[in-house]
């Protein structure tokens, strides 16, 4: 049907296109969680290009390239949704879940097995993500299979930095086949700010579009939101768009304690966000885990939290008790359906860190049981 005049993009669409064009991650649904506190881009020496525009509404996955394909895409089959997704939804409906960041050494199946064995009796799932620094790891679906074999429930993080949409679709299918209980969708830190600046950053999709892709494969989809990354006032609206794309759960980044997390959740709920929230609870059990946590993007801990633990006569015990206390406060917030024991070990301390997480989970579970039994 020729002859019609091409539609003229409106101001909002043009502003979004400019923001995407100036973004080193080519984000459609920016800003990412890495915006510096002064508004500077995570990667480049200019302000984040999404700071001055309203939240981009979910309108579908972006086209990869305006050039028409020269051949028809190969026909593909379809994997069944993972059975573990249904089990996890039922588990969440039954009461709060405890998730633990998975601490094993990368590319070390024995370490993975050891940490999984330690954590399996105490947590509902382990969150095993891609590395923020671009460290080489086994692919998510392969790790999910190893974790299942070791007896622990895998909740796998996948980023859009290292894979284009074809590779992400393959990962979605493989994660369903490996029976991942959840898929955590993030855009990913740019390779220029990590340990592999030689690697090409892909960013064919961003976290919002990746959430839609994973939801389409039947996964329980979680996303992250950073309440303290600029623009603060737009973060709840951005989460609402991730929900519209298919996300069911939000892992809330470290935001300075239970009160700021509660404010963020309430603001999101006011905008119509109905998803369940899983706030991060910092796990600090020694100087090594404290140093690792300090490297997290947009980290904010409760005032005095870190110093009080490190100054305690028994740092490990103080860190465990502090995490249990904070987790309990987080779980009292309306809309919170679980907590994520968040952090990581210094090299060589992986199994010990897993034991600390297991201890936190056990003590938290005991407290919740005790509180539930109170008249
Ligand atoms: S801070 Fe993130 S979203 Fe903003 S321009 Fe930089 S990479 Fe893009």
Features:
globular; TIM Barrel; alpha/beta
Q: How do the SSEs run, as a string of H and E? A: HHEHEHEHEHEHEHEHHHEH
Strand elements, count: 8
- What fraction of residues sit in β-strands? 5-15%
Intertermini distance: 72 Å
Number of helices: 12
The gist of it:
The protein is an alpha/beta fold. The chain is built from twelve helices and eight strands.
Word description of this protein:
The chain has helices at 11-22, 83-94, 109-119, 140-149, 165-177, 207-216, 235-245, 258-270, 287-294, 305-311, 315-331, 350-373, and strands spanning 97-101, 125-128, 154-159, 182-186, 221-225, 249-252, 276-282, 338-342. It is an alpha/beta fold and 375 residues long. It has an 8-stranded parallel β-barrel, surrounded by 7 helices. Helix 6 (207-216) links the parallel strand 4 and strand 5 (221-225). Iron/sulfur cluster (SF4) is lined by residues 23-25, 27, 30-32, 34-35, 41-43, 48-50.
